[in-house]
């Protein structure tokens, strides 16, 4: 039996419930590129869905992880502290949004979101959570109820947890303005919810799986003021937007949003550790301290190896100017995509190009054929570019590493253009 036959047979016993862009088997990755068992090298505009912000196998992060492997791999948080968790905390605290002075560490983004809601419920003594249509917060039972970016994440799994209420997110390409979204949020509290029941309002500053849609600059501030008026906490889900992805360390604390949103709780994961599983919840001590010892925790929470990678990731982000590069390369990428949008061959089928930093969404117009995002993604893979779709609308998303060069930005958009021409021909 050949190695390829063995791999094929092994694939057949992996649960089919996991969706995949390709059937490729990846062997290695360096910077913006990945390699496969069949000898292909592909430019990666997915970065593990916004995870390896420092690029694949960044040598400094790899070296830090190797050094930690020789010291201690797993130091369980319910038994004691470990050095790398404390070092990481010292690095993160000065850079958190104003007022945040306490951190809880977990493993996944969904775990961070669930613990943020636990904190909000403990602090307020209330139970309900308001989320926004198109939001993605995870696949666990708690976060699945809060996720509305696609029905696939919840189908056949009900009944879901009660107390989650959905309101529109401002999506200007589809005619939903800040004013309309705020009107519906107000109306929700008139006809369905009482403020005595609502613990938190949970929002992604930029919709992730819902279409890479940045909230308008004034919207987060209006939500902040509304939450205050109802005695609810504001939770910003920065799992995908955090650690430089949108051209600032955290999107909610960016120049785009005026540096004055100040959420009560913020979740983080993905880019925090360059691919090692780690998440966090940042908040104020008065909120965190309503959880007694034993109410929070997790077997792998704040894993020592992951924290070591996270420490070096923070250094790389700052010392190699990756956040500034994300802003510059994001502008270049948007310019390239808008040039394709205006090109005659696209026939007006590219409706919108949007995003912050290197979190860019391209949405096809309603006149485009259904399923075009999947066809374009597959055509891109054939051209040597990994590119994912998202949303219930026809959206493809561009999520390259933050240290990508302008040559690779141009190379990637050229591959996208070739793929799009094939699909439209």
Could you walk me through the main structural features you see in this protein, from its secondary elements to its overall organization?
- The protein has 425 residues and is an alpha/beta fold.
- The protein has 13 helices and 17 strands.
- The chain has helices at 3-11, 47-50, 59-69, 83-92, 109-124, 141-146, 178-191, 219-230, 285-288, 304-319, 322-342, 372-383, 406-424, and strands at residues 26-30, 33-36, 41-44, 102-106, 128-132, 164-167, 198-203, 206-207, 213-214, 233-237, 265-268, 279-283, 350-356, 359-364, 385-386, 388-390, 395-398.
- The strands form 4 sheets. The chain has a 7-stranded mixed beta sheet. It has a 4-stranded mixed beta sheet with strand order 1-2-3-15. The protein has a 4-stranded antiparallel beta sheet with strand order 13-14-17-16, with helices on one face.
- Strand 16 (388-390) and strand 17 (395-398) form a beta hairpin.
- Helix 4 packs parallel to helix 10 (304-319), helix 11 (322-342) runs parallel beside helix 13 and helix 12 (372-383) crosses helix 13.
- It is globular.
- The two termini are 41 Å apart.
- The model has no long low-confidence stretch (mean pLDDT 96).
């Amino acid at each position: 039996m050949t190695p390829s036959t063995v791999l094929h047979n092994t694939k057949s016993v992996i649960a089919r419930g996991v969706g995949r862009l390709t059937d490729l088997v990846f062997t290695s990755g360096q910077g913006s590129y990945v390699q496969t068992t069949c000898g292909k090298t592909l430019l990666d505009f997915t970065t593990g869905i916004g995870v390896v912000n420092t690029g694949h196998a960044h040598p400094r992060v790899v070296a830090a992880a190797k050094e930690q492997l020789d010291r201690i791999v797993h130091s369980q948080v319910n038994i004691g502290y470990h050095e790398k968790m404390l070092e990481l905390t010292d690095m993160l605290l000065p850079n958190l949004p104003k007022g945040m002075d306490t951190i809880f560490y977990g493993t996944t983004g969904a775990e961070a979101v669930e613990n943020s809601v636990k904190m909000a419920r403990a602090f307020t003594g209330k139970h309900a959570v308001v989320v926004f249509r198109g939001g993605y917060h995870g696949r666990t039972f708690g976060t699945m109820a809060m996720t509305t970016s696609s029905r696939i994440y919840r189908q056949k799994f009900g009944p879901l947890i009660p107390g989650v209420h959905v309101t529109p997110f401002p999506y200007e390409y589809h005619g939903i303005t800040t004013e309309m979204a705020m009107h519906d949020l107000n109306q929700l509290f008139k006809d369905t919810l009482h403020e005595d029941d609502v613990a938190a309002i949970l929002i992604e500053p930029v919709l992730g799986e819902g279409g890479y849609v940045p909230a308008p600059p004034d919207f987060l501030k209006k939500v902040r003021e509304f939450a205050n008026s109802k005695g609810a906490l504001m939770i910003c889900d920065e799992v995908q937007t955090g650690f430089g992805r949108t051209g600032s360390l955290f999107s909610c604390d960016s120049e785009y949003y005026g540096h004055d949103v100040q959420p009560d709780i913020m979740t983080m994961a993905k880019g925090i550790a360059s691919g090692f599983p780690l998440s966090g919840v940042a908040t104020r001590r008065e909120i965190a301290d309503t959880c007694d010892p034993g109410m929070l925790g997790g077997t792998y929470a704040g894993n020592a190896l992951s924290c070591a990678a996270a420490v070096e990731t923070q250094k790389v982000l700052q010392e190699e100017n990756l956040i500034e590069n994300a802003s510059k390369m994001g502008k270049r990428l948007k310019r390239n995509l808008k040039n394709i949008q205006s090109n005659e061959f696209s026939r007006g089928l590219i409706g919108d190009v949007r995003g912050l930093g290197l979190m860019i969404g391209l949405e096809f117009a309603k006149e485009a054929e259904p399923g075009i995002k999947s066809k374009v993604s597959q055509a891109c893979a054939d051209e040597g570019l990994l590119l994912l779709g998202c949303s219930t609308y026809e959206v493809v998303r561009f999520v390259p590493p933050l240290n990508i060069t302008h040559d690779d930005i141009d190379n990637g958009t050229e591959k996208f253009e070739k793929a799009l021409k094939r699909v439209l021909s």
